[in-house]
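--- STAGE predict ---
source: upstream dedup step, 1 unique chain passed
mode: sequence only
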Amino acid sequence: MSTFGSITTTSLFFTFIVDFAIQLVFYIYSAAKQTEKFYDVSASITYISCVIVALCWRQLDDRIETLCPRQIVAALTVLVWAVRLGSYLFWRILKEGDDKRFATLKKNPVQFAIPWFLQVVWIFLTPLPVYIILGNRSSEQPAFGSWSDILGLIIWAFGFVVEVTADTQKTMFKNKYPKQFISTGIWAWSRYANYNGEITLWVGSFILCAGGFVEGWQWVGIVSPLFVAGLICGISGIPLLEKSSQERYGALPEYQAYKARTSKFFLWPPKQNVGMALPESTTAGPSSSSV
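--- STAGE serialize ---
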C-alpha cells in the first residue's frame, strides 16, 4: 500500500508545481499586456497539463499502460470537461472583448495577481480526487465497476449535460436578444442551471474517485465538491451574478415574476400561476457565465 509522503503525495506535489508554474507564466504575460483574455483558457490548459503529469508520474514498476479503468475514466472526465469549458469561455471572451470582473484589477499588477493565485488553488482543489487516484499505484486499485463507479459516472454525465445544455441555450438566446434575460428551456427550471451542472459533475467525480482511495487520508478529496459549491454559491458565482442581474433587470415586472416562479439553483419545475409566460422575443434572464 502507498503511504502518506510516498508516490501519491509526490505526484500531488509535482502536479501543484506544474499548476503554479503555468499560471505564473500566463499571469506575467497578461499583467504586462493588461489583458484578461487568457485567464479562462489558461485554466483549461493547466487542468489538462496537471492530469497528464499525474498520469505520467509513476514508479518504474507501475507503468502507464497498467492504469486501472477507473483511473483512465476519471482522467478523461477532467480532460473532456476542461476542453469543452475552456474553448467555450475563450470563444466568449474573444467575442465580447473583455470581462468586467477584471476591468479595474488588470490595471494594477498586484491586484491582478489575486485572481491568478486563486485560480492556482481552484485548479488544484477542484479535481483533487482525480489527482489522488492517478497518483495511486494501479495495482492497488479495486476492480472497476462498483456501485460508486457507476453512480459517480452517471452523476458526472448528468451534470455535464446540464452545463452544456445551459451554456448552449443561453448562447443561442443571447445571439438573438443580447440585452434580454433568458427564462426558457432549462433556464425555466433553474436560474443558474449552468452552475447546477458544474457542481453536480464534481460531486459525481468525487463519488467515482472514492472507489479508488487506498489510504484514509485520501478522503480529503471531499474538499473538491465542497470547494466548488462554496466558490459558486458563496463567492464568485451566484452572488455576483445575482447582484448584476438585479441591477440590470430588477425594475422589470417580468423579471420579478421569473424569479418568483423559478428555482434559484436546483432543477425544479416552475411554480404554476406565478407571473405570466412571456413571448420569447420579450423574455429575459440573469446574465451568467460558467466558472
